[in-house]
Known about the structure:
By secondary structure, the chain is of the alpha/beta class. The protein contains 10 helices and 5 strands. It has helices spanning 48-61, 78-87, 92-116, 127-136, 141-147, 164-175, 193-215, 226-242, 257-272, 287-290; strands spanning 36-41, 66-70, 120-124, 156-161, 218-221. A 5-stranded parallel beta sheet has the order 2-3-1-4-5, with helices on both faces.
Amino acid sequence: MARTDLSPAHRITMLKTKRFYGKGIPKVVLDELKGQLIVVEGADGSGRSTQIDLLRNWLERRGYPTVNVGLKRSMLVSRELEQAMRGNILGTRTLSLFYATDFADQLENRIIPALRSGFIVLADRYIYTLMSRAIVRGVEPAWIRDVYSIALIPDAVFYLAVSPRILVERNLRKHAVLDYWESGMDMHRSPNMYGNFIEYQRQIQKEFKVMQEHYGFETINGNRSPRAIQNELRAKIGAILNGKSGLTELTDEGSNDSNRTERIARSVTALANGDKRDQPAVRGQSAARHRTTDRVSE
């Protein structure tokens, strides 16, 4: 995958024309992708999914139609991937390719059609989590970057950085146990899951620092309150959508109702009336499935 260095001044500037990291998906006309792809990255316990939900509600109140994507949400392989992870039966490369298949299916059948129709796509994690996991498990960085060279370069990427010890506390409060995969137990088979979790998350965060320099995304202090994090995200996303900042307090109720309704109607009509290549994005996928959190760790 080609190195994509972005200076701080350009990290939150919306790309005028979409680009792939590499060769991308065949037959995609990038000039047709008028929507925005916004990614929120972070470990389990970082508050990532909460922030995505808040952003979705805020954007839709302002009149921007949204689509949510994330790990293991492909209609093609998500169930099979969950089953394979429960049994821990796959090698690192095979698991990486399984995740890449899940990602490619969503990219082709959900992300690209939604962008073509003018939607804002909110990604609850993207290729960066998948690459960091593979690299800390010993996969060659050049190989995994090449695997994900099909990915679109997002308009913005925000990484919620949280101290590993705070992650432990949040996960134990929410689930009472630590997740096998988020603790790196497949790498270090030890009875000390707490110690494994801390060490694994430190390795992941170290890899994210490397990727931040490589891909130029923003790191957000995730140790703060959800309100503080949301206000910062809204300010940065507001700058992308409106060309200015300072629009985005948590209590903001959005734009004029008529403008909001008109904007959503245009985008939904475009998606519904799209050509055949758009149709898989709206096939019988319930919102409940894509918002499920009580599953094997993503």
